[in-house]
Amino acid sequence: MSTEEETTAKSVSIAEDATQPTAAKKPLEMRRLSTISRRYDRDGKGYLDETEQALRRMDTQNQGFLGMDKIYGIVEELHAQEQRNSALIEDLRTEAKANSSLRKGIFLLCVFTVFLTISNIGTSLAAARLAKDTQVSYYNDLQSSESGVRLGTTPKDVMVQMNPVSEELRMRRSRHLQAASDVMCPNVTAANAAIHNSTIHCELSGTMGSAEAARLYELFCPGYKTSGYCTGNGVSKINLNCQGHLSTLFGGSQLPPTPPVSFDGMTAYPTSGKGYVGEAAVFLFGRLLPCIQEFSVGLYCPDEPVVMDSGELNDDCMMFLSWEPGTCLGTVELCGEPSDSSV
């Protein structure tokens, strides 16, 4: 080649080099690999991919290969990563099961809510129907609105107050007292007692308001106001309280089936000539004895109230006590005033 041709070739080469980027600016895959780097180029493509580059960086001693310690570290890291991935997968499975259980729980809760709502609606309808068919009595008993029969099934202890007899009331009710005594105590006069050899004691023992006496009979005999007779058995017993002295009256089957009767301007509860059956403790010289005495009482309620000295109207019913001494040595005191005894 002549001198002129060599000069022209150099000029072209310089021009081409000016248009090419410098070696520092070439991409890594276009750079010329060193002898050690070429050992990591597995397929001889002239550059290193990302994995090969990572292996080359780990060869800090420029040996062209990785030692046992390096390989062990890589495997150890891979094994640790695998364990972390397995734990993550197990956590995801556990969470998935929990979510499934939660969905089942929510579904069951929805079903229970629907069932509870239907039950509440049924209960409301039943309560509305029951409210039409029942009513609450004076003594807070649930009873039938139509028949007055007590619907409660549990025993009910009812306390009824009675009062001692005042002398003023004895005087103002003398005529009624005599009429009631003739009905309740026909064989208690001295002559009759001698004839019949009777030791029955019968006397006025206390008083009770007329409204309370009517309610007491209603408690024992439900339905008599509407049907004229007892439509069922009421409460089995009630307790009387008079000045701290307690006694018991029994209802149920022991109550006369006939309704209260009227005579001589009075109404007799439970009926004329036969009273409530009861039990009471007996007293001897003012001391309570451990003995129970049977008795009967009749309530006689005047139809018209009487005016007392205080100007107040009094409609109290008179309670006659009748009993016959038995094995108990003492007297029956319903209101703290003992009846005479010949025991």
UniProtKB/TrEMBL annotation:
Name the domain of life. Eukaryota
Task: Alphabetically list the UniProt keywords.
Answer: Membrane, Transmembrane, Transmembrane helix
* Segments of this protein annotated with the region Disordered: 1-28
TM annotation in the entry: 106-128
- Its recorded name reads EF-hand domain-containing protein
